[in-house]
Specification:
This protein is about 40% helix and about 15% strand. The protein is α/β, with parallel strands linked by helices. It has a single domain (about 1-145), classed as Rhodanese-like domain (Oxidized Rhodanese, domain 1). The strands form 2 sheets. Strands 1-5-4-2-3 form a 5-stranded parallel β-sheet.
């Protein structure tokens, strides 16, 4: 079962990398270390999902910027040199958002590899507001199989 799960994720990550070869990825482990390091500049964390998904749970401090928002420049109030982390459920929609941000001139954009699903499976905290919660939105039945 664990091997099958790993194969699915490896295939999914490979497909995302093929579709978005110029997007930098960051692992959930590296992001967790970064966020816990008080000496490092904290990144702007952008949730690329929709309002319903975000309302159920999100990463602490994440701002909701759906990947298909028409005017993302007006929603982001930071320098082009600010580190930005994008995430969604599995990493595809956030890769689209990361690509859009790069085309807009943002220089330090990273897509969270495996996104919220991997973060959650690794027992890292997800929030609803300031409260830690124990569930996430599965997007749909098909993608819920990766949880």
């Amino acid at each position: 079962m664990k091997l099958c799960y790993s194969l699915k994720w490896n295939l999914l990550n490979s497909l995302i990398q093929l579709r978005f070869p110029d997007i930098n990825n960051i692992s959930t482990e590296k992001l967790a270390i970064w966020l816990s390091d008080k000496n490092q500049e904290k990144p702007l964390i952008l949730d690329a999902r929709n309002k319903i998904e975000y309302a159920i749970s999100h990463l602490k401090g994440a701002c909701l910027i759906p990947y298909d928002s028409p005017e993302i420049k007006s929603l982001i109030k930071c320098s082009v040199n600010t580190p930005i982390i994008t995430y969604c459920s599995v990493g595809y929609r956030s890769a689209i958002l990361a690509q859009r941000l790069q085309k807009m001139g943002y220089k330090k954009v990273f897509n969270l590899q495996g996104s919220l699903f991997v973060w959650f499976r690794e027992n890292r905290p997800v929030f609803c507001g300031e409260e830690i919660v124990s569930c996430i939105h599965p997007f749909n039945l098909f993608w819920s199989l990766l949880l």
